[in-house]
Amino acid sequence: MNLMSIVPQSFFSFGDVLSGDRSMTGIFFHASQQLAHRKETDRNDLFVNRINARVSDLKDKATEMYDGNPGRKLFEARAVSSANNRVVTGEARDSAFLSRFNIKVKRTATSQAVVSDVFKRSESMGLTRTFYDFSVNRGYGDSERIRVNIRLDDTNKEVLNKVADAINDAGIGISAEVQENFQARTVRLEIEGIDRSEMSSIALKDESGDLLKRLGISTSQYSDNSTGGLNPVVGDALVEINGQEFTSDSNRIYLYDGTLIYNEDLVSTKNAEGGFRGNYRATFDLKGTNIEDIQTDITKDNDKIAAGIEDFYGSFNRTIDTMDYSPVFAYASTSNYLNNIMERNANDLADAGVTSEQISEKEKEYRVGSEKLLDSLRNNFSDLKDLFAGAGGIAQKSLFGIDKLTFAPMIGFSIFEADAKPTNYFYASGFLFDGHF
Q1: CA-angle at 399, arms to 395 and 402, nearest 5°
Q2: 260 Cβ partners below 8 Å, 6+ apart?
Q3: Which CA distances in Å does 243 have to 246, 293, 294, 433?
């Protein structure tokens, strides 16, 4: 291959200047110089892009953590905690009021009730064994097996009550109630909470004995005034919250802007204009039914907060690692400043599960112990919030250093007083008065 055919024509002018002709020596010299320059420029551009991306990511993490941020605040993260996720789950927005609700789901919007035959309450059912097993499959995985212990001389009402108690005690998101007609002296069992889309031959199934068959409970036919089977679909959820009963055409209930609503219209059966006052800003999802109240709380989302702190230190490590490869004064100064923030708070960080590990002679990395951090959040939440998110805390100081690098990269962190004596304090920042070097 002829080298002259691939060398840009612009190189020839450099050869003319040096040698007076288009000599190969001049071409090679200037080509190598220009290629080296381009390679160095590309390397510098790549480094700048990488460090800019990492500094930007660290700033985002610190901004989210900082309590003075007007937007999203990590330590204001909220979660919904339910005593039974098979009945009620939910989500809460940041800064939602920490609240407690007692929820009883009597019917979901998508469930279909199953009833037994109608029995004379005082007559004996004539059962032949002392226990029966049946399974319930709601479509969420494995079937749940339920055992009912029976006395051979139990009346129909006593048998139905024992079946209802066994179902309700299982806590699997279905409920049962014995309906009694006092005038006719009859009883009937109603089972609620199985979604109509999951209703099948295995939704309720005898496993040991034939109790369900004897009760006339069937998922393959509709019920009538005396025969068991499926009831017609109602289509509205019926839920009691803190003693007040509501209906909704959806299984999602919104608590937003001071009123308990579903799609701007949740109807109270006791008061058409009912609702709760208070900006809770959360949603409850009705998954099943229950007889007893389910305690459902809007709580601090410690898992999300801990994950945010871990993300911050992951970004911190990557940023410092990149800065340490640069000989530029601004990067070195910022790196020292950010590391000094952590060193000044080393004891408090260690108590929270954040420790440093020396990975080389000049490099160290911060590690977060997840369990210890979660334990600290549960037991010392206010102290940790002040440490990370409060005024003069780790997030705010980190933002100061990042902003100084971003907006004034040629200005160092050493501040000089009027008499030209160096000081160890960041008087210029207005809040870093404890910031020793």
Answers
A1: 140
A2: 241, 246, 253, 254, 266, 274, 275, 276, 280
A3: 10, 9, 12, 53
Helix, strand, or coil (residue 176): strand
Q: Kindly state the average pLDDT of the residues 145-167.
A: 96
- Vertex 100: Cα angle to 99 and 105 (nearest 5): 130
Query: pLDDT at position 408, please?
Result: 56
d(CA 373, CA 367): 11
List the single range of 17-21, 141-145, 338-342, 400-404 with lowest mean pLDDT. 17-21
CB atoms within 10 A of CB 114: 25
What are the angstrom distances between the C-alpha of 86 and each of 288, 289, 294? Answer: 6, 8, 10
Q: Are 194 and 174 in contact (CB under 8 A)?
A: yes
| Bridge-based pairing state of the strands 294-300 and 78-82 | antiparallel
**Cβ-based neighbour number of residue 313 at 10 Å:** 20
Task: Output the DSSP codes for 258-296.
Answer: TEEESTT--EESS-TT----S---EEEEE-S--SSPEEE
Domain with CATH 2.60.40 in the chain: 114-230
Query: Tokens 């990590």 appear where?
Result: 74
| CATH code, residues 114-230 | 2.60.40
Rounded CA gap, 247 and 262, in Å? 9
Please, are residues 405 and 329 in contact by the beta-carbon 8 Å criterion? Answer: no
Residue with tokens 């806590």: 171
In contact, 382 and 75? CB cutoff 8 Å: no
pLDDT single digits (tens) 294-323: 999 999 999 999 999 999 999 999 999 888
pLDDT at residue 435 greater than cutoff 80 = no
